[in-house]
Design a protein that fits this description.
Layout lengths: L7 E4 L6 E6 L22 H13 L2 E9 L8 E10 L10
Antiparallel strand pairs: 1-2, 2-4, 3-4
Amino acid sequence: MYLGVTPSVSCSNTTENEFFLMLDKNPLVDFVEELPAGRCSLCYCNLLCGVIRGALEMVHLAAEVTFVQDRLKGDDVTEIGITFLKKLEDKTHKRKK
């Protein structure tokens, strides 16, 4: 929503806790012309994985968020895989009187 891009969602049939977000247009790619020589494993768009993971942790869901495909590496789309690991416990703090 904040990037102005609406992803397509694809669910995995094998597990119920995994799905994929596919971005036809990734606005972060516009800021990178070419990966530096010798740094082809560098993932500029990993920022998106951190944002998604952090947002899920804010609603008490632990998840593994990884890139499956990246347009900077020659793929047709940017695809992010999300696997839910567990529901985090809500820690409530008691007020001291």
